[in-house]
Write a structure and sequence with these properties.
homodimer, Aspartate Aminotransferase, domain 2, 2 domains, four-stranded antiparallel beta sheet, 17 strands
Chain lengths: 404, 404
């Protein structure tokens, strides 16, 4: 008799964004005349840029000709892409990462969900609170998170590192030493970052304790301040303690194109085993590479034209971020983020719960945001708005919120 | 201190096809003048067909325009694709599968590796022997396979169902009742199939014992005989015991495009929980959908023109299969497969081991095949050749083998 993985049943309710989609669908079904503005899920809205479109068409044409047709990709990604990543994202920033330390994938969500597999089930994880839900949920499914304590809205075997107004939304070293530490800077959902000195302290802490940091750099393209690191490998010693995750979704608008990569330095060992070998084994056994045409598009991102165009994309969204940040400040909200990240993190007014404010905003302003409590217990009483809408919609949404 | 997942260390050597690639690379480096013909890995060589290329270009153009740009796909796949699959692959074959029982993914390799996650670690799996290595390897990584017994080349906690000449390469019910049964027909690597009556017996067996069948139908497009089922859902009662995996790689040439799907009927429950809900949860937590442009190409496969074109592709490869099958028979080899599958399964001559024959063929005929032992202990003494080369190369390879 087949038994199911009971760990799945420990997850409370369904995935945050599925829940939001359901609520919005119900509202629009009941109110078909209302124009909903979505500043909820972190999904981009600008079209792909000309250089990327050209490279996609070229790659499609290659697939039409037997001389240039491509079947299975190399397990870990095409060299042309891994070399471009190593050069632009690392070498030009003074980080020493080799192309064969880079694993190309179909996106950072898969990688951030799957990376825990290479670790023993008895490791204890630490996460920022609030944070992107995939880190905790994927560990729950693997049986690493313990049981859900519903009165506290937390899992019994997860170390939560509160990121609140009091500490400037930056995590502090927890009382209990974690085995695996998930860090995400610029943070989703708070938009907060840490400077290089602060990140160096985390690297030193991990090296001292033999912990591994899983560093999610999905939003690094949005960093505007000089002392905020774009990669954890800017810190001394990071290659013996850190794995870094990257996405093409937010910088190049690839949410529907699907491309990401993970860096595992060859020096990074635990139990005498290179984590690089374990992840390579996972890739070659359970994954078959990102599509050739998508990897070609990824390469185009690193061309001079591509780099220029994606700066334009990021600039477009950051103009939205400024508009939201300033507009909500004017309206009397307590807000943060929006400077090094496309997310604005606001305190709900009148001590409303996050979901109450969600309903309030949906029904009164027809604006969709994301309840902070969906990102962890310390997200309660907060709310996330994203800068990924069109400028016109963003302006309209902020104006509607101001009038509430 | 972080601990690794020790189950990974139980895997002997690296993944079969990575090993082959290494050996071939070494040989070509030492013999740059030799023309290698690859009939090893099951990778297609024909270009994508015109209807698919057109749909890819159209979808790329949609991504260039803000009015038609697509971000994140729906968790479980676009309706346009799921509806086309339900209609052509199921309804037109008399199978009652709804679009929302279909989960679109980036390929059957990922799905066949990941599907075990929704089951408890204490389930016992059964596999055909020989078979596609991902089923066993992914269960080893999850800790479900026990330890590797190197003297027997098998895992202690896996039920191997020998598929040999004696039983016509069709598995028999094992002595011990498995919880999860992996079946792959047409089989990779033997190319063998079972008829509908035989498959019905497996469905009845699973329903009687409460087991779940994971049915890999990756090669169904190659079936040429009438009494061989294309889907397990052609059997009565399969919806309460079977999950089915499909690939676009082998019928439409998508090995480098990446698209597949998994069917989990809503009736399929264990421990009172719908497996459909568990897999939906996995998708929404750890996966972000196949690229829009690839899903559009998938839809084009189901258009009348697309269907016609992929029949041409399959016909091309099956002509190769016939050439290999007949050529090797003439040369005195004992061969099977090649009628309902693009694989030819041959007995190594003079009791050579599979890897010895691999080296023999590589060095003497410069032809790459796949050692049967890489697919399980009962694959020892066998060898797989694929029909996925060009016709010219296939003819040349067979002629070279004949001259050995």
């Amino acid at each position: 008799m087949t038994r199911i993985n009971n760990n799945y049943l420990k997850l409370p309710g369904s995935y945050l964004f599925s829940n939001i989609a359901k609520k919005v669908n119900e509202f629009t079904a009941a109110n078909p005349d209302k124009k909903i503005i979505r500043l909820g899920i972190g999904d981009v809205t600008r079209p792909l840029t000309p250089t990327i479109i050209r490279s996609l068409h070229d790659a499609v044409d290659e697939m039409a000709d037997e001389k240039t047709f491509k079947g299975y990709a190399p397990d870990l990604g095409y060299s042309f892409l891994r070399e471009a990543i190593a050069r632009v994202d690392y070498k030009e920033r003074g980080c020493d990462i080799a192309p064969d330390e880079i694993f190309v994938s179909d996106g950072a969500k898969c990688d951030s969900g799957n990376i825990q597999e290479i670790f023993s089930v008895d490791n204890k994880i630490a996460v920022c609170d609030p944070v992107y839900p995939v880190y905790v949920d994927s560990n729950v499914m693997a049986g690493r998170a313990g049981d859900y304590i519903s009165s506290e809205e937390r899992f019994s075997n997860v170390i939560y590192m509160p990121c609140t107004e009091d500490n400037g939304f930056a995590p502090e070293f927890p009382e209990e030493t974690p085995d695996i530490i998930y860090l995400c800077f610029p943070n989703n959902p708070t938009g907060a970052t840490v400077n290089k000195d602060a990140l160096q302290k985390w690297v030193d802490y991990a090296n001292k304790n033999g912990s591994v940091i899983i560093y999610d750099a999905a939003y690094e393209a949005y960093i505007s301040e000089d002392d905020v690191p774009h990669s954890i490998y800017e810190c001394t010693g990071a290659k013996t303690c850190a794995i870094e995750l990257h996405s093409f979704s937010k910088n190049a608008g690839f949410t529907g194109v699907r491309l990401g990569y993970t860096v595992i330095p060859k020096e990074l060992e635990r139990d005498g085993v290179k984590l690089h070998s374990l992840w390579a084994r996972r890739h070659s056994t359970k994954y078959n590479g990102a599509p050739y045409i998508v990897q070609k598009a990824g390469k185009a991102v690193y061309s001079p034209e591509g780099q220029n165009e994606i700066k334009g994309l990021v600039g477009y969204y950051m103009k939205n971020a400024s508009y939201i940040l300033n507009g909500l400040k004017e309206a009397g909200f307590t807000v943060s983020g929006g400077v090094n990240a496309p997310y604005i993190w606001l305190k709900t007014p009148q001590n409303m719960t996050s979901w109450d404010f969600f309903d309030h905003l949906l029904t009164k302003a027809n604006v969709v945001g994301t309840p902070g409590s969906g990102f962890g217990p310390h997200g309660e009483g907060y709310f996330r708005l994203t800068a990924f809408g069109s400028y016109e919609n963003t302006v309209e949404a902020v104006d509607r919120i101001k009038k509430l």
